[in-house]
Amino acid sequence: MTRECTLQQLADLVGGSVVGDPHLPVRALNGIEHAGPGEITFVLDVRQLPLPAHCQAVACIVPRDAGPMTLPTIVTPQPSVAAAQIHTFLLSTPFAAQGIHPSAIIGNDCTIPAAVSIGPLVSLGDGVVLGERVTIHPGAVIGNHTVIGDDSILHARVVVAERCTIGKRVILHHGAVIGSDGFGFATDSRGQHYKKPQVGTVRIDDDVEIGANSCVDRAAFGVTWIKSGARIDNLVMVGHNVVVGENSILVAQAGIAGSTTLGRNVVLGAKAGVAGHLHLGDQVMAAAMSGIHNNQPAGARIGGAPAFEVRSWGRATAAFTRLPEMAKELRRLRKEVDRLTGLLGSTEHEKGTEA
Amino acid sequence: MTRECTLQQLADLVGGSVVGDPHLPVRALNGIEHAGPGEITFVLDVRQLPLPAHCQAVACIVPRDAGPMTLPTIVTPQPSVAAAQIHTFLLSTPFAAQGIHPSAIIGNDCTIPAAVSIGPLVSLGDGVVLGERVTIHPGAVIGNHTVIGDDSILHARVVVAERCTIGKRVILHHGAVIGSDGFGFATDSRGQHYKKPQVGTVRIDDDVEIGANSCVDRAAFGVTWIKSGARIDNLVMVGHNVVVGENSILVAQAGIAGSTTLGRNVVLGAKAGVAGHLHLGDQVMAAAMSGIHNNQPAGARIGGAPAFEVRSWGRATAAFTRLPEMAKELRRLRKEVDRLTGLLGSTEHEKGTEA
Amino acid sequence: MTRECTLQQLADLVGGSVVGDPHLPVRALNGIEHAGPGEITFVLDVRQLPLPAHCQAVACIVPRDAGPMTLPTIVTPQPSVAAAQIHTFLLSTPFAAQGIHPSAIIGNDCTIPAAVSIGPLVSLGDGVVLGERVTIHPGAVIGNHTVIGDDSILHARVVVAERCTIGKRVILHHGAVIGSDGFGFATDSRGQHYKKPQVGTVRIDDDVEIGANSCVDRAAFGVTWIKSGARIDNLVMVGHNVVVGENSILVAQAGIAGSTTLGRNVVLGAKAGVAGHLHLGDQVMAAAMSGIHNNQPAGARIGGAPAFEVRSWGRATAAFTRLPEMAKELRRLRKEVDRLTGLLGSTEHEKGTEA
Fold first, then answer.
1. Which residues of C touch B336 (CB under 8 A)?
2. CA distances from C111 to B2, B121, C132, C136, C204 (A)
3. What is the 8-class DSSP label of residue B30?
4. How many CB atoms are located within 10 Å of the residue B237 CB?
5. φ, ψ at C87 (rounded to 5°)
6. What is the three-class DSSP state of C326?
7. Whose CB among A120, A273, C141, C283 lies 3.0–4.6 Å from B156's, allowing a Cys bridge?
8. CA B273 → CA A324, B293, C282, distances in Å?
9. A61 and A192 housed in the same domain
10. Is there a single domain that holds both residue C303 and residue C344?
């Protein structure tokens, strides 16, 4: 289901300008290879123009006026942002509350507005508070006294355990687990472990997205905190008492150990890991598979395990591929230097100087 | 529950030949350490013969005629393949449809043959189409307009989200998530992210197996495609628009970023990661924990992160363990060369030559 | 809900001694930053004393008598163990059986004591045996003929597949999957895979804890075995026929391939991986992100991928950061040695010696 707009309306939405017919009707956005009649597409670079002959798009979002084109354009400096906004807008429909499915189990003393959609086989504990227009898909489980903000979407089989707080417009993807116990033990001198009760909670702020089967552990004491706008991919592990800063991005299978804090707009590449009790400053970027063992100042770009400055890491990994050759060269040099030393030793001897 | 056969029947099944009594009854297959009376076992190499005295197997699958043996054998060049086929055959039972459990929730306009087994607390959306002899275990969730092919098995708590297509004889293990949103955002100059709607779908072809709690994201546009015979282990991440070729193997905790395509019979070792927008040719093999940042030609064998040719990588990792010693040797050589240069400098001076 | 005790009672519980008022009432334990009136806190080192002025704790667990303090203390050599024990004790409440929720689906021939709590939308197969005081949270699925020991807790959406055995006081966190099929295939000469039936099971001993969305595969034949006291974090993969020794710790996103055995008190750091068919002796410690390809003797401390002795690995990684500089130095030395050789060649020539 989509809505139809004029090209000018879409340009206004993203603060862009139209080149061509402003009244052109547009009903959907699609990739260059998939766009059909009535659909707009986008390019990130004018060198992608002109579009291939088989592309049926009726308009294109472009980063700057590309001169004479075969089709109308919206010119905007950030076409990918504009495309995301326009695509979202064209797909958006008014919230249609489906109410509470009769197979859902609702605990005592829950606060549930009329305008929600709670799917089949959902379980809500006691004292759960739902915001307006919350959608909970089949099989999700919400623990006692958890609060879910307006317009949030919990996909199938999500768990949000007890006493967590989820903000507005949050999206939790299928199978994500919010509020499982942190991994905390005390070990005695005989190697036996004693569980440390994890009595804290999880707070997820507005506009956060958490991927399928990812886990955010509750705090030992206090709170594990995912700040607004953070985007977390699938199969990511966020340990207890971690703080993930605003708009930070954790790519798939990344992991953050307990009590580490991330600033704003930090990016952890896929499978990157961060040790516990560290701080990564704003806008730190860690390459995929980085293993981060030290605090990082704002803006640091790092790679490797253990991680260090990313360009140095790039050079080191390039050199690494030649390491066996370096070892061989080192052995050759040793031999040659020994020979030279032998020769010069005698020379020295002849000259009567000491080593 | 098992069926009983003669040794000859089993040999015929796998194209092998019997040495010994062809009428010997066999009712099960088991490992050497577990085999009991009436059970057949197998060895991959005749050097594993004779079997240990305590082994109670009545027959053995062997790779070639091993001369006089104490027990009958099936000779076949690939004993492990034969064992898998014989084991599967001996365990197989006719499909016994259990129908739809009364606690399952079935959406509108679903197409469900009589011969299916839909367990307790399963949720099917609207317009779901199931093939013949489909089994859906407890707690699984199927989204709207998803199609499941004949003889497929969805284990407990699987999610297949809306509009996905699952082939025949597919096995989805417990907790696997098929069709979650791809991880796609556009970021503006202030670092704010805009979700790119993920309007594509997932197609899984025949005879695919996907492991527990693994995730296959839906495409942004178009399709994420797992081709026939691919085998995916637990906790694997397959990003949006990825194509996994026929019979490819993704071992546990591997991950593939968006839009990367794999050829046939590619093997990604455990925890291997592949960056986005790459192509790995047929039969590429990547060692466990590889980090793949470049296209790979068919047949490439690679390891390391960043990954390169596997034998070179092996030599480089061996040299790596001696790196501190190499650094020390380098410092020693520097000292010695400086000394030699000093000595020869004077020699040169004496000879009146310049450096 | 908490219970109230005197300081002396708590000291007795952990074998510690009181300095100060033994009759002081204590109702809860909390971290230094969170402790309020009536609460005890703890320090691991007397250098953390005195507590900050704003800390409202009424008592403190300390590792040794710290001299005159402003508040009463419990002195015990392992304050973190004592804190875990005291915290657990203060939080503990008698088991309050909630019975079987009417929406739970119970199979045939199950053995279920009166004193259990089975939450909404739980599915038990046939022949399931539950111990006393078992708690099963919403949405969990238990397969046929599985046995769960006394006082075990299965959190929301856990799956324990058929024929598994779970010990006493086991905690399975949300979304964990126990007993999924092992990843076993035989591949023929054309690259086609044949599934090896996984007919074994999983045995989890007493006092084990398994993290959210972690997976423990069933054995091909025989048993995958997690021994008593082992602690497994989130998103961990345990392959078929693996044995995890007593009190071993597997940190988040670690993985163990098939048939590998771990001794007692082994620690695998986060994201560490162990290849198949290996043995790690007692108390092996592997750093985060280790890739273990060889057997390890008891007590080995290792890091890196491939992993080797941890201090050597530390030195090698330090040298790695200087690798490009080493390569440059090597090239400089080559040039200088070539020059020296040229000079000495002529010297030699003059002296009539051969190279």
1. none
2. 27, 21, 10, 14, 19
3. -
4. 30
5. -60, -45
6. helix
7. C141
8. 25, 9, 31
9. no
10. no
Alpha carbon distance A28, C229 (integer Å): 56
Q: Could you say which of A145, A155, A173, A240 is catalytic? A: A240
How far from C192 is each of A201, B151, B171, B204, C188, CA to CA, in Å? 48, 19, 16, 17, 5
Are A84 and B185 an interchain contact pair (Cβ–Cβ within 8 Å)? yes
pLDDT tens-digit readout, A195-214: 999 999 999 999 999 999 99
Q: Tell me the shortest Cα–Cα distance from C288 to chain B, in angstroms.
A: 13
Domain boundary among C91, C126, C144: C91
Kindly report which listed range (A342-346, B197-201, C149-153) carries the lowest average pLDDT score. A342-346
Residues 6+ apart with CB under 8 A from B13: B85, B86, B89
Range of the domain at A29: 5-91
Residues C115 and C206 in one domain: yes
Distance from CA of A239 to the nearest CA of C (A): 9
Whether B240 is catalytic: yes
Burial class (CB in 10 A: 0-12, 13-18, 19+), A235: buried
Looking at residues B214-224, what average pLDDT do you find? 97
Using CA coordinates, name the residue in chain C closest to A320.
C323
Q: What is the CATH number of the domain that holds B16?
A: 3.40.1390.10
Which of B192, B215, B251, B336 would best serve as a mutation to test chain A binding (most A beta carbons within 10 A)? B215
Please check whether residue B61 is in contact with residue B40, taking contact to mean a CB–CB distance below 8 angstroms. Answer: yes
Its pTM stands at: 0.95
Q: Which amino acid is at C9?
A: Q
Section B302-307 average pLDDT: 97
Q: What angle do CA C281, C284, C288 make, to 5 degrees?
A: 140
Contact C87 A197 (CB under 8 A): yes
Query: Least CA distance to A179: which residue of chain C?
Result: C174
- The lowest-confidence range among A333-342, B236-245, C165-174 is A333-342
Alpha carbon distance C74, C62 (integer Å): 6
Nearest by CB to C324, from A157, A291, A316: name it: A316
C234/A183 touch (CB, cutoff 8 Å), yes or no: yes
Does C317 map to a domain?
Answer: no
For chain C, counts of helices (H) and of strands (E): 4, 39
Q: Interface partners of A (3+ CB pairs, < 8 Å)? A: B, C
CB contact under 8 A, C191 and B353: no
Place of tokens 């879910």: A148
Contact B283 C344 (CB under 8 A): no
Dist. CA C308–CA C13, nearest whole Å:
42
First to last CA, chain C: 88
- Report whether B246 contacts B207 (CB < 8 A): no
Count of structural domains, chain C: 3
d(CA C129, CA C136): 13
**Cβ contact, residue pair B275, A253, below 8 Å:** no
Asked if C85 and C211 sit in the same domain, the reply is: no
Cis peptide before B37 (omega within 30 of 0): no
